[in-house]
Each structure stands twice: as C-alpha cells, then as structure tokens.
Amino acid sequence: MGDREIATAENAGTPETPPLLAVAGVERRFGPGAAALAGVDLALGAGEILALLGPSGSGKTTLLKVVAGFETPDKGRVTLSGRDITALSPAKRNIGMVFQHYALFPHMSAAENIAFPLAMRGHARQSIREKVSSALALVGLSGYGDRLPRQLSGGQQQRVALARAIVFDPALLLLDEPFGALDRKLRTQMQAEMKSLQRRLGIATLFVTHDQEEALALSDRIAVMNEGRIAQIGTAEDLYRRPASRFVAEFVGEANLFRGRAGVIGGPAHARTVEVKLETGGEMLASLPPGDRAVHYGADLALVLRPERPRRLAAADAAENRVSGTVAEATYLGETIRYRVALERGGEILLRWPAERERLAPGARLELGWSAADMTAVLWA
Amino acid sequence: MSARRPGWAPLAAGALPLAFLGVLFLYPVARLLLLSVEDGSLRAFERAAADALYLGVLLETLKLSLIVAAICLVLAYPAAYFLATASRGWAALGFACLLLPFWSSILVRTYAWTIVLGRNGLVNRLLLETGLIAEPLALLNNEAGVVVGMVHVLLPYMVFPIYAVMLRIDRDLAAAASGLGASPWRVFTRIYFPLTLPGAFAGSVLVFVIALGFFVTPAILGGGRVVTIGLLIEDQVRRFLDWPFAAALAALLLAAAFLIQGTFQRVLRGETRWH
Fold first, then answer.
1. Chain A residue with minimal CA distance to B192?
2. Burial of A293 (0-12, 13-18, 19+ CB in 10 A)
3. Residue of B nearest to A163 (CA)
4. What tens digit of pLDDT does each residue of B72-87 get?
5. Crossing angle for the helix pair B27-35 and B243-271, nearest 10 degrees?
6. What is the interface size between A and B, counted as CB pairs within 8 Å?
7. Which residue among A196, A360, B110, B137 is least packed, with the fewest CB closer than 10 Å?
8. Least CB-CB distance to A103: which of B176, B182, B274?
9. Tell me, what's the pLDDT at A18?
C-alpha cells in the first residue's frame, strides 16, 4: 500500500507542484456492515484524466460523490488546488459534473441549461450569451440552443450536460458512468470526442466506470477499486502487465491463474523472481511486482499469466516454465484466436494468439513455454 | 417501442365501468339538464341571467372556491413535500393523518367543526382564556367557517397530485443544480418548484371544481348566511319544486366548471411544455 501511495504522488505532482486534487484517508460508512469507502488516498495532477474502475458496490461512485460534495466523509480530507474542501457545500466547490443520466433540467432549453451555472455566479447577460454560444459550438450543438432536453437525442443530451459542466471553467470535471446510457457505436464516438475535448481544455477529469475498455480508452491512469479501497492505481499497461493483486489481475483483462506456495526468492533487486510449488504439482518460476514486500517464503500465491504470453515450443526449446496439453476449443475473435488448452497435469490454460499465425484444431497436442518475466506472482488472498 | 395495436382487452376492461357511468350517471345528468329547456324555450336561462342575485351567487361561489383552492395549495404543498421526502416511517404516519378523515362521513366531519368553531367552541375558549381576545370570534355561520370546513375536506385532493409529481422528480436534478453553484433557495425556486407546477395546477383545478358544487359543508357551517350555487339549486328543487330553473342553474355551474378546467389546462400546457 505504502509504495503505491508514493508512486501516486510521483505521477500526480512533485513537491513543488502539489496535486490538483488530493483525497487523503477518506472513509465513509452507510450504517453497519462494510464501509462504502474504507480509507482512500488518491491524487490527480493538473490536466490529468483518471478513471475510477471497479465492480458495482466497490465505492467508486461514493468516492466521486465525496469529491463533488454530495457525500461528506466520516474521516479524511479532500483538497482541491491546495484548499481543503471537505466541508464545503457542492455549490462552492467549482467542480463540473456530468451525471449518469445527465440530470438536465427538463423545463429549460439546452441554452438555459448551459447558462444556469453562469447565472448562479452572477455573470452579466451579455457574457452569458457569449459563453453559452461558444460552449454549444464546442460540443457541436450550435443551433440547438432552443431545444428542450426531451427534444434531443441521447448523444445530444450528453453534449449539453458536458457543455453545462465546463462552461464556467471549473477546476475539475467529474463524470459518473458518462457513456453508460448510449449504444455501443455512439459510445465509442462520444468517448473519442470527450477525450479530445478534455485534451483541448486541459481540464483535470475524474470519471467513474465499470467498463474497462472505456477506462483504457479515455484515461491517463486508472484506479481500480474494490470493497471501498483502491486496489491499484497506474497506467493501463501497469495494471495489465504488473497487477498488484489477484483481484486486479482478474478484473482487468483476461488472466490465467495458478495457485501455489512461494519457495526461494531470488534474482536482482529490480527483477526478483520466486520459485513456486503449484498445488496441482510441479514448479514454476514467476516474477514479483516491482517494490513488492508482501511475498515471503511459504506464502499462498496466485501466478498471473496473460493469455498472449505463452509461446509454442518445439521439443528442443528451453523455457523457464513449460507445460504440455491438448487444444480443447478454438474461438475465432477477429484479430485473435482464443484457445482453451487442457493441460496434461490437470487444469486448463487460455491462449490468445494473433489469428494469422498457424491455426490449431481441437485435439492438437502442443508444448507451451513462457519466461518468469511473463508471469507475475501476487498473494492469493 | 413496438407499435402493436392494443387489441380488444382494454376495451373489454373498460366496458363495465363505462356502462355503469353511462347508465347511472350520464343519462340522469343529461335528463336533468334537458329539463332546463324542456318547454322548448330558454326561459329558465333568461331568468337566471336577468336577476342579478343568481349571477352574484355564481360569482360568490367562484370566489369561495378560489379562496379554498388557494388555501389548500398553500397548506398542501409543504405537506406533499414532507410525504415525498420523509423517511418511510414518517411518510406512513403522514399518509395515515391525511387519509384518516376519509374513514368518517363528510357529515360527521362537518358537524365536528361546529364543536370546534362555535361561540363556545374549542377555538374561542382557548383564545378567551389566554386573553388574546375579549369577545368570542364569529367563526360559524359565515364564510370563514365554510372555508375552514371545505379546506379540511378538500385538502387531500390537493396533496395527492402534488405528491405524485414530486415523487417523479429526479433527485439528481437538485444535486446537479447545487453542484453548478445554486444555493438551496435557488435550487428550490429555479428547479424544484417549477417542476412541481403541473401537480399544483392539477390539484388546484381539482379542488376548485369540486368546491364549485359543494353542498353539505356550506349548508351546515354557513348557517344559511353563505349562499352557494349548490345551495341555490337545492332550494329550487326542494322549496320551489322548480326543476327547470334548478336544471338551468346546474347547467350554468357545469359550464363554468368546464370553462375553468379548459382554461387552466391551456395555461398548464403553456407552462409545462417539457412534459
């Protein structure tokens, strides 16, 4: 945990430039039972876009509400631009938010909706008119200002909600499952537009999603949440290649998991490896995540192997880890083919290989191998 | 949305109540109204128009109904807000209080008010004993008493339409407004209140139209000194046995109710174009 916090601070700002948004030790509990937020630390740098990714009930929406001011944390602090906003009302935070179902005011036109935050800040009529029309232009809705929300399509409503959330130059933009209500094609298009708009405006953005593709497509970094905590925070590649826990390994992308006991830990400090005695018998060599301190001799481990890592071996080839098996099922997925391979010593393994490689039919026998660097060991629990 | 035709099932379901209303309500009402022109002339209507008394009573009735509707609105709005936002237990208690009066007859409830409002009634005794007034207030046998009684009976008809609209308001709207910089007061005046207007209009029209034809409460609490169009009609039927004239007055009342309902509905559509 401690290492990840340091990593977060490094990514989000140096001591000279403190993070734009800092969430420190935030806890929130609704009645008895598990806490919605059980101690969350998070830092967001200027201009950064960060995804809060997690299953439902993981606390991601509660965290967003705490930042927006709709929930007050039981413990911990939230600072924005160096100012403690933990107890500040939402109205005074200067944060723009796009709600899951947009929350456009149904009795106001698109232009009136966008003008609302400006009117609340006492802007002059003329300045409001100008800002509203340039915000409408920014989201590609010039000429739609007089429409009521119900006269707009889902994608247009979302653009209005976005324009309304950024028209007053907020310090931070929050998005709550912003594309969940759109169909797949429109979603992809809106994600691309959203990302280019966010880049152009350079506005720091925090968004909640349960869709990992969306998190990958939009964000600089991803915070994976589970049971009210941040399980891991990092770039998409960090999460995929170097998951810090079994939960992250399984939640982000596909993973083969092997369970076993840690044996001897060796290798140089920056690339430590661990010998693992598998519960199904046999041994494997896996790498430890950088900076890991949790894995010790005898620990109950999960070995995470991404399905594209194993190679097909010829009889003479050597590899740090080696298994043999029979293809049980081949599924064509377009760019890739997914093989389910039944292992000779029990269990099975998933492979995902480029489709243009040689095809294997069910029943084909094959030898597979991968290096220790291809497989990460994390605690099973 | 599929464009399937609804078929015969809704028709069949509606047939029995429609037949019931048609035979037992519409037909007698139509017959009654036809009495006003039974002799082939509009004499009854001419008489109603010629005498300032009848027009005056109609206007008085409109005014009384308007006052009742306005007071109901002011009382019902916070009550509906309470019901729509309170926790489950409090809301259940609120509903019980609101619905309890329906368990007793309107006659009983109206007579109960004479105990409260009379010269030696609860209100006057309380005010006299605390020294707030020296002389008992006249709360009965005048318009004040009638208004109190009618408001009491009609309040639920105002609360429910407002409550129903409030329940449908997306809670995210208030959160969004507040996040965009609106103070709680601004959230109410700019977002919440405008969105509840359809309910307030609907409740007002309902209460107003029911109040127009009210009979029992003005009869008992007005003590003969408050004359409404409903009392006038009853007078014509029972005292003067002048059915055609009673029918003419009833037709006028019905026309007024339709006119007002229609006008309100137009305003409503203009004000709530988002629906």
1. A105
2. exposed
3. B180
4. 999 999 999 999 999 9
5. 120
6. 66
7. A196
8. B176
9. 78
Positive or negative, the CA dihedral A122, A127, A129, A135 is negative
A309/chain B closest Cα distance in angstroms: 45
Tokens representing A172 are: 């931070």
Q: What is the DSSP letter of A56?
A: T
Residues A105, B178: C-beta atoms closer than 8 Å: no
Q: State the ipTM, two decimals.
A: 0.81
CATH class of A254-379: mainly beta
Ranges in chain A, pLDDT < 50: 1-15
Q: Do A107 and B179 touch (CB under 8 A)?
A: no
What are the structural domains of chain B?
A: 41-271 (1.10.3720.10)
Of the candidates B175, B194, B195, which has its C-beta nearest A70's C-beta?
A: B175
pLDDT in tens, A127-176: 999 999 999 999 999 999 999 999 999 999 999 999 999 999 999 999 99
- The residue whose two tokens read 């009889």 is A315
Q: Tell me the C-alpha distance between A196 and A215, whole Å.
A: 15
- Name which of A221, A230, A218 is nearest A179 in CA terms: A218
| Among A116, A97, A119, CA closest to A108 | A116
Of A242, A158, A251, nearest to A207 (Cα)?
Answer: A158
In B, residues 182-211, which contact A (CB 8 Å cutoff)?
Answer: 182-183, 186, 190-191, 194-195
Question: pTM (2 decimals)?
Answer: 0.82
Structural domain boundaries in chain A: 2-241, 254-379
Secondary structure (DSSP) of A84-95: E-TTS-GGGS-E
Residue A60 to residues A24, A40, A64, A216, A227, Cα–Cα distance (Å): 15, 10, 6, 16, 9
CA atoms of B19 and B21, how far apart (whole Å) = 5
| pLDDT at site B273 | 59
Give chain B's residues under pLDDT 70: 1-6, 270-275
From residue A207, alpha-carbon distances to A54, A62, A169 in Å are: 11, 12, 17
User: A91–B179: do the CB atoms touch at under 8 Å?
Assistant: yes
Q: Which CATH architecture has domain A2-241?
A: 3-Layer(aba) Sandwich (3.40)
